[in-house]
Amino acid sequence: MGFFLQNLINALQWGSFYALIALGYSMVYGVLMLFNFAHGDIFMVGAYIGFGIASGLLALTALGGIVLPSWLILVLTIIISMFLTSFVGMIVERVGYRPLRDAPRASAAITGLMIGIILETGNLALLGARRVRFPTLIQSTTYDIGGVFVTNKKIMIVVVSIALMFALHQFVRKSKWGMAMRAMAFDYVVVPLLGVPINTIARLTFAIGSALAAAAGILFGVAYPVLDPYMGIVFGWKAFVAAILGGRGSILGATLAGFLLGFIEIFVAMIFPSTLRDFIAYSIILLILTFRPHGFFGEPYSARLRL
Amino acid sequence: MAGSPLETTSSKGKLLAFFAQVPLLGWLFGALTAVLAEQFLGSQLVDLLGLPKIPVLFGCMIVLKKPLLVPGTLAYVLCIYLLPLAIVARMAAPWWNKIAGYLYRLSPSVAVIVHLVLMYAILHIWSGISAYRLLTVKLTMIAVMVTLSLNVINGYMGEFSCSHPGFLALGAYTASVFTLLFFANDKIFGTALLPASLGPFLFPLALILGGLVAALGALAIAVPSFRTRGDYLAIISLAFMFIVKSMIENLEIVGGPRGLSSQPNYVNLPTVFIWTVLCVWIINNFVRSTVGKALNAVRDDEMAADAMTVNTRRTKVVAFLFAAFWAGIAGGLFAHVLRYVNPSTFGIQKLAEVLAMVYFGGLNSVYGSVVGAVSLSMLSEALRPLELFKWIIIPLLLILVMIFRPTGLIAFTEFDVKGLIRPKGKE
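The joint structure predicted for all components is written out below.
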């Protein structure tokens, strides 16, 4: 039982990365009906921006100007890099997606893939092939709760991600912008006629999605400190899978599917040899989609097909 | 075409009209002259111009490595390729038209065969200069096959399928296991079961077997595609790709993550050429047949197609199996060209590459696939000296193409063989 709980916590942590990234996919899909295939690389960019800011703040502290406690540095890092990465998302939207708003969706998918490659290569060209190490901001302490060992990092990651997801949920449900987003997701054609600025909403959607990806990137850096330019690929595709599995455009679905994917991966690695992880995880997804072809919370495609 | 006043007044239009009278036969003879010139005069000219050796890909690599050699390379390309091409093709255009017309009236199939033989001769002589060129030509032709087969699903049927690396892997591994098991002494499978001299004759069997296994794998995507399409199918096919990759990584019998190597060297230029021609010919016929039209109907409106007596399920299954079959054959060839495969070859990067070729060239078009595959593989080879920046330039180019021509360079065009080999100009 303790073993199970132990892995449950690992799975929660692993799943929260997927869920945070999948939310970005799902939001962009909901509003624009496009999948942003550059999203995984925005996660990578977010992690690197966070690395830069954290190192900068640490250097500032070391220089002796202002002494910041390390938890404050972490909070500042998360906030500033979410803010900066949202600009990356907006640029991606402006360059790669707005010109293709009315083009076939596959074309936008190709631009997304290509922007992803440019982000990876750009990073490689700027920083070189050397992997960077995310600075240690919080010292790892392990708590023993009834035989289950939990580190403070894991708790922090899970808490911060759930808080962010809750904030997003409140934003989409309660705010005026969120209402505009939901309206655009509901009807893409009529809503602009009612005075909703679609370009602004699209930009905002990309910005929020990228900010969440950046948060995931920094949390990832806290948990697994080695960053490399290609780390976004695997996470991006898996989060894409999670976004679809949850039902396109469904925020709740993306969150749940992200966690589910995390659980599947961790528990498969627990029971079987870890090399079988991808094999079993994707087979389960294939099975789920065969029997439930529209994901957990999705609608049948014929209801809103826009090719 | 050439008669519109706008075209004839501009100088570009004039140039186009000037060359528009050259039939394909003339171009092929021009190219043949060019490659023959390179064969016999190339090394002397290289010495004369002070180049290190014969430029492999029209001088792109030399120019990018040593910018000082730009004039020499330009002169080389001009003397060897452009001038013979222009002179032989354009100056003799009336004669070429006569010959092309004669062949065409004789029998279009004879004319096609003459063109193909010429094409092969050009490729043979051109790739005979260096082993690197030969490899590039082979890989380019395999890329054409892969792109075409993906275009059947993504372009003609309108699904966003991500499964092609999986089909390639199935084909590559099946064919490799077949040849390694029967015709080669190797670490994993032990000594050959059949005499090695039989190998080249049974190699097509290995390829077809690879194609069939890939087609079998395609059933795993074709069946879910009855109930869903679009993004969900994209995920299903993506999952299939990862499953295949992961399965091979876990199968120690085929080498696991280390891969399979030392496949027998069966794939020479004629083999690839013949398979590519077969692939283009059969796929072109397929997409112009009733099934091909049914595919387009399914793409445009599945329900309407169903109402118009198109058996949508059968159409989807046929298209998936057919495309996967050709992808499997391409995979088998690929494995035997490189003589080494490992599972990580068939991952996301391969997928991005193939998708880029399809969407760059153009959807729903055999012509576009050929153009996309050839131009992107050539570009990717030519820009190799730029190393990292290649992966910024090529994606940028693709983004621009997508923005200005969202369906690709040459989309929705029929590949009309008879129109291609017909004599040009006034009859």
